[in-house]
Amino acid sequence: MQTHSLKTRFLLITLLFFLVFAVTAGIWLYFEVRGMVRELGERYAVERVDAARLRLSRVLGPEAALARNLAHSPVIIEWMLNEQDPQKRSRAYAELASYRESFADSNSFVGILSSCHYYNWGTDGGLVKSELDKEEAADKWFFETIEAGRPITFNLDYNVAIKESRVWINCVVKHNGDPIGIAGTGLEITALVSRLVSAEEGGTSVIIAEKDGSILAHPDSDIMVKNAKTLDEKEKIGLFDLAKTQSDRKQLEKLVDSVLSGGTAVEQISLAGQSGLVAMTPISELDALVVASVDTSEFLNPGDFLPIFIFLAGTIILGLVMTTFFMQRLVLQPLAALTESAQKIAAGDYDSDIPIRGRDEIATLTSAFNNMTAQVRDYTQNLERKVEERTVQLSETNEQLAEANTRMTESIRYASLIQKGIMPDETDLSRRFSQYSLFFRERDIVGGDLLYIRDIDPSDPEAGFFLAVVDCEGHGVSGALMTMMTDSILEHLLPDHDPRNPAAILTGVEKTVSRALATANRQEMFLSGFDIGLCVCFPRRRQLIFAGAGMPLYIREPDGSVVTLSGRKKAVKNKHRRRPEDFENHELSTAGRTFFLVTDGFVDQSGEGTERAYGTRRLYSFFENYDGSKTAFEKEFDDYRGQNIQRDDVLAIAFDFKNFE
Known about the structure:
Elements: H1 2-39, H2 41-71, H3 74-81, H4 86-102, E1 108-112, E2 117-121, E3 127-131, H5 140-148, E4 152-159, E5 164-175, E6 178-188, H6 190-196, E7 204-210, E8 215-217, H7 221-229, H8 246-262, E9 265-271, E10 274-283, E11 288-294, H9 305-346, H10 361-421, H11 426-430, E12 435-441, E13 449-455, E14 465-472, H12 476-493, H13 502-516, E15 529-538, E16 543-549, E17 553-556, E18 562-565, E19 572-573, E20 586-589, E21 594-598, H14 600-603, H15 615-624, H16 632-641, E22 650-656
Antiparallel strand pairs: 1-2, 1-6, 2-3, 4-5, 5-6, 7-8, 7-11, 9-10, 10-11, 12-22, 13-14, 14-15, 15-16, 15-19, 16-20, 17-18, 17-21, 21-22
């Protein structure tokens, strides 16, 4: 049959392509590997050690910043000064719970120097309280950290019982310049450290060590267990103990000195019996060194690839043969019977039934086919009449639906043109900002996000301007109506308010929204509102005043760090279940800074393959690496989203005033 012919051709073509690919790739790989082994050994070692350092830094950086904020919290400081005060303790517990939700490992702790009490909120949310004893070896870290006087320290601890590494971020809490305790978090990085110290790929081994040579992480678990159990520091296995000869030890010491004074370095050293290159770089977060040892003799061996190709070729051929056999037995033969029966029905013979064998999908299909044949046999005589009647009914219904859909779509598209008409264009943006990036995309034809820009004095463009990003509840038509209302309210209120007081402007906006959405009897109101970030920009004065509700202002400092300026937590509403806090003005200098406003549709977007939201940690990383491109937001969003549908309307803008400085 034709199906068998197709199967044979598929098998032969697949085998031919595989053979051509295997031979070509094998020859090319042989010569390329020989060249790479000679030329790329040193660069590979440096890349491996830098990659290990960057992975640790990317994990520890945001956590360290959050731990610093916890240590500077006035609520925590007040509680430490009066630990027994129940009100201060309650506020401190709430503060710690809030920070625990923000920490990556959902863990926070506080140690109070005056009482030697230690509080730890674990990942399960439970509180563990204990007493710190200066004489206990397990508690010495607390008193040594206080005595050292460093604002923040990192401690990598390897637990023998659970074979798990955890980084403790310890921030000293001070009052009037004097230490009163320690606050911070613990970050479980067993999986990350396991990948870093894995020595199973390409003859490469990664080690994490302190500057004095003490090993913090090593691929040999025996070394980690021995060092964890040994109390005497002199008996622990150190980095220099891994040197094969005295000469290698001296070279290793010189390498450490070179790294401490100048960054990443690489030398030819035999380490732990492995001859090859040793690359080393400092990691500031842990105040330690990352060491990568590459055995160049085992880096790549062209001959090792031959068994792999032979195995793959044999596996594919065997797979093709077995696939063909089972396809013929389980699929093609039953389908041939179904095809023959279908041909008979096409010829007008409805009396054939196919024997059912087994209980698989083919058997289910055969049973369904037999049932269909019986029904076709029963309804053959009056089928055409029923079809004609239903066709006429469906045609009329479809015409009505098509007409209604056309009218509705045209109305929504016209509304989209109106909505886009109130959005700023390229001219509005380019004359106000030195550099900007704008990304605006509705989920539907119209959406609930709005970018609003208005000069303070239209007759004097140098006087400054208002900039607002609005994220209305809902999307589609309901969101679009809210944006139109918000735009109208801002246009009405801004001329009557002091431009240097955006907090008062937002207060007026909320009152107007409440009145606008009230029902006729004034007894009930629709519960609706929006998030907003409102900036009053004075480029010539290098000044920006911010007030917000539910939407923070992100700021990238000149040194590349990113901070968040939060306004009121609750959105602008026409009705609140509880009275929200007042709006607050935040006055900032624009010198050297880049500012970002982003609606939650950006961070809530799920990624292709992971189905996880983009999240604020990725957003911070994006801000740190933002290159000023106008398409930066769009590329980042689409790269992460992939083929996933867009979940919400998205509006994001980055801007600075560096040309006005």
